[in-house]
Design brief:
heterodimer; A: 257 residues; alpha/beta; Rossmann fold; two-stranded antiparallel sheet; 6 helices; 13 strands; B: 305 residues; 2 domains; five-stranded parallel β-sheet; 18 strands; 26% helix; elongated; binds flavin-adenine dinucleotide; binds adenosine monophosphate
Chain lengths: 257, 305
Amino acid sequence: MKLLVCIKQVPDMESKFKVNAAGNWYEETDLAWRMNEYDEYAVEQAVQLKQQVGEADLTVLCIGSDRVKETMKKALAMGCDRGAHIADDASHLKDPYTIASLIAAYAKDKDFDLIFTGMQSQDRGSGQVGVLVAEMLGIPSLTTLVEFSYADGTINAKRELEGGIKAKVSCTTPALVTCQLGLNTPRYPTLPNIMKAKKKELISTPVDDLNPQPSLLEVLQVAPPEKKGGGLILEGDPADLADQLIQILKEKTTALA
Amino acid sequence: MKTLLVAEYRDGKILASSSELINFAAQLGAESAMVLVGSETTLPHYQGKLYLADSTKIGEFNPSQHKQLILEVIEKEQPSMVVLPHSSYGWDLAPRIALALKAAQISEVVEIKDGHLVVPSCNAKLRRRVKATTNISVVTLQGGAFTPAEDPDGTPEVIKVEVAADGDIQFAGYEEAETGGVDLSKADIIVSAGRGIGKPENLAMIENLAKALKGEYGASRPVVDAEWADPSRQVGTTGQTVTPKLYVACGISGAIQHLAGMKKSEFVLAINTDKDAPIGEIADVLAVADLKQLVPILTEKLNAL
Ligand SMILES: Cc1cc2nc3c(=O)[nH]c(=O)nc-3n(C[C@H](O)[C@H](O)[C@H](O)COP(=O)(O)OP(=O)(O)OC[C@H]3O[C@@H](n4cnc5c(N)ncnc54)[C@H](O)[C@@H]3O)c2cc1C
Ligand SMILES: Nc1ncnc2c1ncn2[C@@H]1O[C@H](COP(=O)(O)O)[C@@H](O)[C@H]1O
């Protein structure tokens, strides 16, 4: 079975974000980078499937600068077999359509039985790339999965809908699935697996080899949201803070009445 | 400018997001038509053309059928924008329509500013103003961002449409939300634990603070997903909607799906190490502190009152 999982490297969302000089994205220096959370579920599910079927080859793909190889190594240490790095220093300026066109161009004649993506990237949050790739390849896609099982060429899954309701869906492979929070618990790579991952294949391909399609979106401005004011921000020693908070709760709420 | 609004329908009911679509079109000052897979017995309040496909024939959401239907209506109406909710329905369907039209998709619009659409990035810490370079675009709206002040009025002019039943995805029914456990919707005081608690043992701290305030404890989704707390404790779009007099958010960043469940609280106190955490946008007070230090001291002082 041939499997592909697409991952993106994103900044830690607890970072302080500054708008870059060009005004079209955030400043990339001084950020801590990690695997997009949703993609961790995708990698975990792909690795579990590989272990289930035994005979499988799992490729992890990531588009980005050389920096993203660090995150790809984590996926290799989690159990992916090989890495396909699409080298692109300007990937952050490409819209979901262009990113999807690159993944589809890579996957086109490789006959993957199953492709895993996250449901959305934490920094861009468009939630488009997975479904676009499937549509470009002409294969079915099941989205926002919180449960996944595979047997004999059929995927049975549960999609998460609003209000805690789930929809049971199925399709046959080849197919693509997008992974949602709660699908599984991603494993931590063990030290021996981290060592093994260093020897795994990780090939970089220049982005232009995959004939990127032009973006359909233009970014006019990036800015922090306007502060609505209102809220009081308190800082300082925890004991003092606790006293201030109690005072506020007494004055502003009925909680301590 | 003309928009085609794609209303969402589930299990015999049109969803409330349809009024947000109508309000969005009104805010844009755009003409609109609507398409719905639904039933003549529960039509939306809407003044305009409604292309209606019978859900008793089509059944529940099936991506290829809905895609085909919407593309046919687009062919008839020639809109320059197709609008869907940014929900499990829109996430699934919008990119399919966008690619078929080779249209730009703008996801999770929160605001219209100077005629341009604004979307959030990085857990709402940044906002981007974006523009489609294609003649037609597909847009999804963040839930709650375009809720109208008053429910829309009117009776639609129904135009029946049909679509061949087919597709490569099978739907095998719904699984209802688990019920039982605590009913947070009745609690006056809720103290919630987020991923910032770091490890399951620290949940006790949150429970103790809730007890000291004579309230219940709640949790964000990652805490529930990790099985540190019971699913009935989850606050947010896929959990409970709560309206307590006091909501204390401990180590919760304030993602839109969490806010949707608690933003109607009367008073919100947030405890977070990150001064820029989006929870600060709606909190009455943000205490910038490590919850592991502040929560126990606060609990102790409250117990001593
Ligand atoms: C379809 C869908 C539905 C969803 N439904 C829900 C839902 O119903 N409810 C829900 O909650 N989420 C839901 N989510 C998930 C949501 O998007 C966020 O991922 C989630 O709310 C984040 O939880 P969190 O704030 O606890 O964690 P994080 O976003 O990881 O935030 C942790 C916070 O803790 C702070 N912190 C870290 N350490 C400390 C410390 N020592 N002291 C104080 N603060 C600290 C950090 O600064 C950070 O702000 C949904 C997502 C999707 C896509
Ligand atoms: N640069 C990238 N490289 C590889 N996969 C990506 C990239 N960007 C997005 N993806 C995949 O597409 C999913 C959805 O991303 P998005 O449409 O940006 O929200 C992510 O969870 C990834 O699985």
